[in-house]
UniProtKB/TrEMBL annotation:
Catalytic reactions of this protein: ATP + protein L-histidine = ADP + protein N-phospho-L-histidine
EC nos: 2.7.13.3
Organism: Carnobacterium inhibens
Signal peptide residue numbers: none
Transmembrane feature ranges: 12-33, 62-83
Annotated protein name in UniProt: histidine kinase
Protein keywords: ATP-binding, Cell membrane, Kinase, Membrane, Nucleotide-binding, Phosphoprotein, Transferase, Transmembrane, Transmembrane helix, Two-component regulatory system
Pfam families attached to this UniProt entry: HATPase_c, HisKA
Membrane topology value: Multi-pass membrane protein
Length: 376
């Protein structure tokens, strides 16, 4: 650390003060020994190791003190001066660090203490940098969460307002009796009813999303056969697949894959992925679910051979309210929460999910542990 002129002056003054204190201490010791020799010479002579030095002091001839005694006192003096100056120097280093900390605390979080201190002070500076970095990250995370909450409110407001406006509009027409006949009345009520159901789906999805996003959400774990579960789900979707002129099946080399998980939540995941495959696999002929097992995890992929998902959309598929379509129409895009809910449910089970898409195949792949770790 480079010292200022003022700090150097303080160190010089500290050195002179230390020398003065040492001389005063030596003189006091000289006086005390001299008095002891005068009052109790017999007792002093018993300490024969220091005899020569004591005899010299008794004669008030400091210069005649033995060389050993002079060297001993000189070493003590140098050590004392070095200790006090080093102590003062560390205090100056600490003052520099405190000054830098005050500067950082004023909002200059990108500032770093570049002065080289050496020794233990360098460890203190490194710890300060780690603390500042973690604080900045925490602040950025808090800002991101706040921004995320604002976006959530904005998106929910938008998605609720659209059907709500239609409901109010059609119910207003009915209230004002602005319909020509019963057929038109039924048309208005049907439209209002359809929009109300859309709002209900959105609210339920939003509730589910907020619930599964919490890491403390409990899982109702049961033992089950994943192959059998998927075959039952496929059977439920066969009618819809026929309407879309598509085939749907489960492909696996295993007769059974025993797992431990919350089946109700996983069914929600698979329902969403299969529905999306049927709905958005335009031009495709087949949807198939592949089940594999490796080590302590199961790998389940929901695949369709329809139109590929644009590459720019792949990384955003699991963002809440994101829809591949530019339009936010709920008739085609749903609530935009399905995949975000699916990702959160898979994460709750200690797994992960990702998507890939090309001209041949669009795949949603899940990695799930076969057995859940016990929570203490």
């Amino acid at each position: 650390m480079k010292l200022t002129r003022k700090e150097k002056s303080k160190l010089v003054i500290e050195g002179f003060i230390t020398i003065g204190l040492i001389l005063i201490l030596y003189y006091a010791a000289f006086v005390i020994f001299n008095r002891m020799l005068m009052d109790a010479p017999a007792m002093i002579r018993e300490y024969w190791i220091f005899g020569d030095a004591i005899i010299s002091i008794r004669g008030n001839q400091i210069i005649s003190v033995t060389p050993f005694f002079i060297i001993f006192l000189t070493i003590i003096a140098i050590a004392t001066i070095y200790w006090r100056l080093k102590r003062r120097y560390k205090q100056m280093q600490l003052n520099h660090i405190i000054s830098e900390l005050h500067y950082i605390a004023e909002g200059h979080y990108e500032h770093r203490i570049t002065t080289v201190f050496g020794d233990d002070m360098e460890k203190v500076v490194d710890s300060i940098h780690v603390l500042v970095d973690s604080t900045v990250q925490a602040m950025e995370e808090e800002r991101r969460i706040e921004q995320s909450k604002d976006e959530l409110i904005t998106n929910v407001s938008h998605d609720i307002r659209t059907p709500l406006t239609s409901i109010i509009g059609y119910l207003g027409l009915i209230e004002e009796r602005r319909y020509q006949n019963e057929e038109e009345l039924l048309k208005y009520t049907h439209t209002a009813y359809t929009k109300a159901k859309q709002m209900k789906v959105l609210v339920e999805d939003l509730f589910e999303y907020t619930k599964v996003r919490q890491t403390t959400t409990p899982l109702n774990l049961t033992q089950f056969d994943m192959v059998q579960l998927l075959e039952q789900l496929v059977a439920d979707f066969e009618l819809e697949a026929e309407k879309r002129h598509m085939e749907i099946e489960v492909i696996t080399s295993y007769e059974t894959v025993q797992m431990e998980a919350d089946t109700e939540k996983l069914v929600r995941v698979f329902n969403n992925l299969i529905s999306n495959a049927l709905k958005y696999g335009k031009g495709g002929k087949k949807v198939y679910i592949e089940v594999q097992k490796t080590g302590k995890e199961a790998i389940i992929s929901v695949n369709n051979d329809g139109a590929p998902i644009p590459e720019k959309s792949l990384n955003q598929l699991f963002d809440r309210f994101y829809r591949v379509e530019e339009s936010r129409s709920q008739e085609t895009g749903g609530t935009g929460l399905g995949l975000a809910i699916a990702q959160s449910i898979v994460a709750l089970h200690g797994g992960y999910i990702y998507a890939s898409s090309d001209d041949r195949l669009t795949r949603f792949v899940m990695h799930l542990p076969l057995k859940q770790l016990a929570v203490e």
